[in-house]
Amino acid sequence: MSNKTNQQWGGRFTEPTDAFVARFTASVEFDKRLYKHDIQGSIAHARMLAKVGVLTEQERDDILRGLGEIRIEIERGEFEWSIELEDVHMNIEAALTRKIGITGKKLHTGRSRNDQVATDIRLYLREETDLILDEISRLQQGLLDLAEREADTIMPGFTHLQTAQPVTFGHHLLAWFEMLSRDHERFSDCRKRINIMPLGAAALAGTTYPIDRHYTAELMEFTAPANNSLDAVSDRDFAIEFCAASSVLLMHMTRMSEELVLWTSAQFGFINLPDRFCTGSSIMPQKKNPDVPELVRGKSGRVYGHLMSLLTLMKSQPLAYNKDNQEDKEPLFDTVDTVKGCLRAFGDMVPALESRKMVMREAALRGFSTATDLADYLVRKGVAFRDAHEIVGLSVAYGIKTSQDLGEMALEELQQFSSVIDADVFEVLTLEGSVAARNHIGGTAPQQVRQAVARGRELLAGRE
Ligand code: ARG
Q1: Does residue 31 have its Cβ closer than 6 Å to ligand 1?
Q2: Arch. (CATH architecture) of 365-463
Q3: What pairing do the DSSP bridges indicate for beta strands 162-168 and 154-159?
Q4: Which of 160, 316, 403, 419 is catalytic?
Q5: Residue spans in the chain of domains classed CATH 1.10.275.10
Q6: Is 257 marked active-site?
Q7: What is the structure's pLDDT at 282?
Q8: Rounded to whole angstroms, what are the CA distances from 271 to 101, 284, 430?
Q9: CA 159 vs CA 156, 166, 234, 263, 371: distances in Å
């Protein structure tokens, strides 16, 4: 073969690749990240080939030894990656041949880079998905612990970011827990479709060798070989799903972030984030900025962007493999890194946040947060709800005029608006009375928070 052309596929070429084109089409700079999975896939493939008699046991053992050594060299940083060899697959294969000679050239029997790369990404993404699932669980664990400590803490609940009704802080935190439970389900579900093995599809049509795909799948702990070779080498829907699950997770995390940013502001002052999760300003000495939640909020942008990239990348691609698919890796890798980083930061930070109970309580006392409780009280005394709504509305208007909350008014003042009001009204106008009264499944009462925490703990225990 002419040494002017590519060693792996240069047979039919009469001139070398243009230097810029070689760099432009190469993926090794980023896909070398898949080296471990590429080697894992090659080991399974070689074992299968030996099992069905395409390789001898000696050849298999030489290949396994060579691949093992290459892995160590890569991990020690001693491996020389070459752009001329395009991608991680050809770099490793060429190194194997340098190491063990002609047997190295037999590894690619019955295989193509098309099914190889599809297998590598799935192995990679399965591993990362498992780490992400664990990180979601860790954050959820932190939320349960915090919610339990804050089961009795009262804060204003908001709609339209206006004070609505008092809630317990624990209940609020458990709303986040629920979002994350669904995120966990989405990633677990996505994992099922990641865990299907393309190997054996070869370039697109399968191979003429007597391969045993069930055996290869078993070796790599895939649920099953992919049903259709054309589909197996071409679709990246599993990566799109992963980015979709990541986008929803990040969306949830932006909601949490937004609240953390608001709550740490001087205007709210509901919580304190330990200094180690914050940074200062180079000009304003008084500043302590909630950088971590702000950054997580901002990082949602790139994750949504990667979802769009992959959807667009896959759109209109004819069967089967197209080089477009090489572009799947950077968005996917960055999504994985971003999601893991955000989860790690939150998993460390959220359990460490300190609530400022008095500030929360004061805030709940302002803004007529027990107005609905007064209306419900009137209904229990026989007033129709619409009339009760009107009576409370008038009481609130009076409170605004006289600068007092409902609970601060004298009984006579309240009675101006309805004669059915008695001294027992103050039981419902207190914050504690208000939250304790919402004592049903899904409600904000401290007792319900404790029960929800117990259910949450069972859920997490069931995942192990
Ligand atoms: N580097 C390629 C990718 O990432 C590997 C498969 C290339 N196959 C091919 N026939 N050019 O998708």
Answers
A1: yes
A2: Orthogonal Bundle (1.10)
A3: antiparallel
A4: 160
A5: 10-109
A6: no
A7: 83
A8: 65, 21, 23
A9: 10, 11, 46, 15, 14
Domain limits, CATH 1.10.40.30, in the chain: 365-463
User: Is residue 254 within 8 Å of residue 300, measured between CB atoms?
Assistant: yes
The β-bridge partners of 289 are: 279
CB 453 within 8 A of CB 144: yes
For position 2, what pLDDT does the model report? 43
pLDDT value of residue 4:
54
Candidates 1.20.200.10, 3.40.50.300, 3.30.360.10, 3.30.70.20; CATH matching 114-361: 1.20.200.10
Strand-pair partners of 272: 354
326 lines ligand 1 (CB under 6 A): yes
Q: Which regions in the chain score pLDDT beneath 50?
A: 1-3
CA 162-165-167 angle, 5° bins: 115
Distances (CA, A) of 208 to 52, 110, 187, 203: 13, 7, 36, 12
Kindly state if the Cβ of 338 falls inside 6 Å of ligand 1: no
Please count the other Cβ atoms lying within 10 Å of the Cβ belonging to residue 133. 17
Q: What is the pLDDT of residue 1?
A: 39
Report CA dihedral (301, 303, 308, 309) to the nearest 10 degrees.
Answer: 110
Q: For this structure, is 246 an active site residue?
A: no
Ligand 1, atom 3: closest residue by C-alpha: 326
State how far the Cα of 445 lies from the Cα of 452, in Å rounded to an integer: 11
Q: Which CATH number fits domain 10-109: 1.10.8.60, 3.40.50.2000, 1.10.275.10, 3.10.20.30?
A: 1.10.275.10
Please write down the HEC assignment for all residues of 395-444: HHHHHHHHCCCHHHCCHHHHHCCCCCCCCCHHHHHCHHHHHHHCCCCCCC
Can you tell me whether residue 166 is helix, strand or coil?
Answer: strand
- Tell me which residue has tokens 């004592």: 439
- Residue 153 Cβ inside 6 Å of ligand 1? The answer reads no
- Determine the Cα–Cα distance for residues 365 and 408; give it in Å rounded to an integer: 9
